[in-house]
Design goal:
The complex is a heterodimer of chains A (62) and B (753). Chain A is an alpha+beta fold and 62 residues long. Chain A is built from two helices and three strands, in the order ααβββ. Chain B has 753 residues and is of the alpha+beta class. Helix content of chain B is 27%, strand content 23%. Chain B has 18 helices and 27 strands. In chain B, helix 6 packs across helix 7, helix 9 runs parallel beside helix 10 and helix 16 crosses helix 17. Classes of the chains: A alpha+beta (62), B alpha+beta (753). The interface between A and B is medium-sized, with 19 and 39 residues.
């Protein structure tokens, strides 16, 4: 899907607006890969134009 | 430079040196205080009554006789822990795991707890508590739990991740899928396909220090918890949430930690200890026995995994598939999902699909264990890679090099990789003298690769400079592997002072903002970055103080080699001021000098390792001895190489134990048969060779020093490396971990037969 957003925070807001069922996944925790770089908490990260963004589950470590 | 996390290729003075650890003397002389070493005035002893059943309805708990026993100050059941979780299912599961609510879900599940004046009285009270159970059918095996006639643990679990949504509950919590391309088309292109199924048994982290805490709750609603933990801020949040306390009114102090490896990222007894203290109005100390640690803390999943990989005759993999079934104990988890995400992460695959099946069974709630879920997936995938290489008549190492992921590869779990280290670790294997060493009869050599994500998280750090110029560094991430030394090195590097001038501490929850746990190999990455920024802030303060002392503009002051220097000809007579000079003057230049940072470091950088292993098998007893072992891993930048090597060696040692001996053994009655270190055998020094290490340094572009997490990845390859070595030694493929003497003898007998 294509979404207009300049930061991870904006992207997630738009995503939930367009796809309300995504809220459940966000509540469970997600990490956001922007051009292969994985962000879990830094939602102010700027998304460069044309970037590929992947939402992956927020993982646990040991 | 500010707070830019970008890698700068900075030239170091002390980073990379092998300094003495600040906690060393206390630990070797017994001064260090672990979880069980704290005591409070008037403290009581807390003990737990645990279920002897794998699955049972709790019809009645009668505590009347125990309450009348002299010296008993409080008894807790689930009735004393009302559900305040407000729809948060994860928190509710934690609450129910800490104390059974109507049903015992596994052997060892807590049913009640007692606080009494001494252990003898508390034990007697436990005997006086009468519980009426109605035994229910149980299931402990992950494959059995998925059979149509399996007893269903929870009537609320309807499998998610599948369409259409099931109409009946089952033990399958969730199905997750990762991958890309078209695997059917990929397998159609393959010249050779290998397909095989594997099983791995449940293992425990095996930390030497059992869970222990002292809880003290005051009638005014405030409380304190002294505890061994990987994350005291998270423990504070979870405990406060479960008990209806204000987070800020619960102060949690972390003790030294005698190993955690993921098992101390979860609460087990702590909320109950606080509830006991609240009820008794006295401090309560709880120390788990080893048997309780095995039965009622959080081991890793047991698994059942199918793998199918196809390749062209030239060695190019055309398709890869895995179905991974992981049990999470009696509560839903994400363990199979993690296995599915990591399974094929080492390789550059056009067509790949991994399905994770998360399953509940009547076993203790699974917790993270060092690169959680990745070792089992790697065992299955890396064993199949060796099988396929042999069918292709290629060297397994060359087959891996040909298919290794690289910068620009789309990872099997989704994103595209930046600069990564799998290729360099494999090339280092090829060049390593270990690969050319001669082997004798009954010996075999194997190698395998491993992957783990690493992550950052919320971090808050304080750096304070005393008037004598010594520096206190206070961090909120628990030191599980020498991070105080590494972080002190970082502070010394930034300030330009000797390492010995810095003292690092772990602050309690009242002294810093929230810090996420030390997990995901994040301690040195995250607190290291926060320390860099805090130190740079302190440097800015010192520049300003120097300017005040000289009465010149701050713009005319630079910081070089631990000194403030005035620039420009007009200041040439001003002698440089050391950090100590500026600190000594601080009471009259504005007061204390400090640097502070709160941040959420991200992009910890994915991590890869390749291991080489030589084993010798005794064909009469089936016993396997690891005779040589080499770990090659990318560390980004090794701040303190000795501790990086220690992490590599520790992970390998745990993986060797997992591969050869460690196993939860359940009886037909669903009870754990071997909850102790006599019957659950972890490797000791005499079982292991010296584990050689080779640190590769491929800088993480998202850390000023290039640091990547290093703590977890080294446990990922050993299961497969040993399996591959055993296969080469015996001529038979082992598909069930642990590869213990009975299984090896059985495999050898089948070979002979």
């Amino acid at each position: 899907m294509e979404i207009e957003a300049s930061t991870i925070r904006q992207l997630l807001m738009v995503l939930v607006e367009q796809y309300p069922r995504m809220q459940g996944h966000l509540d469970e925790g997600v990490a956001i890969a922007v051009e292969g770089e994985i962000y879990r908490d830094n939602w102010d990260r700027v998304i460069p134009p044309g970037s590929e963004v992947f939402l992956i589950p927020r993982i646990q470590g040991g | 430079m500010g707070n830019d996390p970008s890698y700068t290729n900075q030239k170091f003075k002390v980073i990379g040196s092998r300094v003495k650890r600040p906690d060393g003397i206390d630990k070797v002389t017994g001064r260090a205080k672990y979880g069980a070493d704290h005591n409070a005035p008037g403290q009581l002893v807390g003990l737990f009554l645990r279920s002897p059943h794998a699955h049972a309805r709790i019809k009645k708990i009668s505590t009347a006789r125990a309450e009348k026993l002299s010296g008993v100050k409080a008894i807790i059941t689930c009735d004393d822990l009302p559900d305040l979780t407000n729809g948060d299912t994860e928190a509710r599961d934690i609450l129910e795991n800490c104390m059974a609510r109507g049903r015992a879900l596994y052997d060892g599940h807590a049913i009640a707890a007692v606080a009494a004046i001494d252990e003898k009285t508390a034990k007697k009270a436990l005997q006086l508590i009468k519980v009426t159970y109605e035994a229910l059918p149980h299931v402990t095996d992950v494959d059995d739990a998925l059979k149509p006639d399996a007893p269903v643990l929870h009537d609320y679990i309807y499998t998610t991740g599948v369409e259409p949504k099931p109409k009946t509950p089952s033990n399958l919590c969730n199905v997750s899928e990762f991958g890309h391309g078209d695997i059917e088309a990929g397998f159609a292109e393959a010249d050779v396909i290998v397909e095989k199924s594997y099983k791995t048994e449940q293992v425990h982290q095996g930390y030497i220090e059992p869970h222990a805490c002292v809880a003290s709750v005051s009638p005014d609603g405030t409380g304190e918890l002294w505890v061994t933990t990987q994350g005291h801020f998270s423990f504070r949040s979870v405990c406060a949430n479960l008990l209806g306390m204000d987070v800020a009114k619960l102060k949690v102090t972390a003790s030294e930690i005698g190993g955690g490896f993921g098992g101390k990222t979860h609460v087990w007894t702590e909320p109950v200890a606080l509830a006991l203290s609240r009820k008794a109005n006295r401090p309560v100390k709880v120390v788990m026995t080893r048997e309780e640690v095995f039965r009622a803390s959080g081991p890793a999943s047991s698994t059942s995994i199918d793998v199918k990989i196809g390749a062209k005759n030239d060695g190019t993999i055309t398709a890869a598939f895995a179905a991974l079934r992981y049990q999470g104990g009696a509560f839903p988890g994400i363990w199979a999902m993690l296995g599915a995400m990591t399974s094929f992460a080492c390789y550059n695959l056009a067509n790949v699909k991994a399905l994770g099946y998360d399953v509940v069974v009547n076993r203790p709630k699974v917790a993270a264990y060092r690169a959680p879920s990745a070792p089992m997936a790697a065992f299955a995938v890396e064993s199949t890679m060796d099988l396929l290489a042999k069918k292709l008549r290629m060297k397994p190492l060359d087959f891996r090099i040909k298919n290794a992921a690289k910068e620009g590869t789309r990872a099997s779990y989704g994103p595209v990789y930046g600069p990564i280290g799998i290729g360099p670790t494999l090339e280092a294997v090829k060049k390593h003298p270990h690969m050319r060493a001669r082997l004798k009869k009954n010996q075999g050599r194997g190698m395998a690769c491993g992957f783990w994500f690493n992550f950052g998280g919320q971090t808050c750090t304080d750096l304070n400079i005393a008037t004598d110029g010594s520096v206190t560094l206070t961090v909120g991430t628990i030191d599980v592997g020498g991070s105080r030394a590494s972080l002190s090195l970082i502070a010394a590097e930034e300030l330009g002072i000797p390492y010995e001038q810095v003292r690092a501490h772990i602050g309690d929850t009242g002294s810093l903002g929230h810090n996420d746990m030390t997990d995901g190999s994040r301690g040195t990455f995250s607190s290291g970055m926060a320390t860099i920024f805090a130190a740079r802030q302190a440097v800015e303060v010192m520049r300003a103080r120097a300017a005040t002392m000289w009465d010149i503009p701050v713009e005319d002051v630079v910081w070089e080699s631990g000194q403030a220097k005035a620039t420009g000809k007009k200041h040439r007579k001003l002698k440089a001021l050391s950090l100590a000079d500026i600190a000594a003057a601080s009471p009259n230049t504005g007061g204390p000098i400090a640097g502070h940072n709160e941040s959420v470091p991200d992009n910890a950088g994915v991590s890869f390792a390749s291991h080489i292993c030589d084993v010798e098998v005794d064909p009469e007893t089936g016993a396997t001895r690891v005779i040589r072992y080499t770990v090659i891993q990318d560390a980004g930048k090794a701040i303190h190489p000795t501790y990086v090597e220690g992490q590599f060696q520790g992970g390998a040692a745990q993986g060797i134990g997992w591969a050869l001996n460690e196993e939860y053994i359940y009886g037909d009655d669903g009870r754990l048969q071997n909850p102790g270190f006599l019957d659950y055998r972890i490797p000791v020094c005499s079982d292991l060779p010296f584990i050689d290490t080779q640190i590769l340094e491929i800088p993480n572009p998202h850390h000023p020093y290039g640091v990547r997490g290093v703590g977890e990845t080294s446990i990922v390859p050993p299961l497969a490396a040993i399996g591959n070595a055993l296969s080469n030694a015996m001529g038979v493929r082992m598909d069930h971990v642990p590869m213990s003497p009975p299984r090896i003898l059985k495999a050898l007998a089948q070979l002979d037969g």
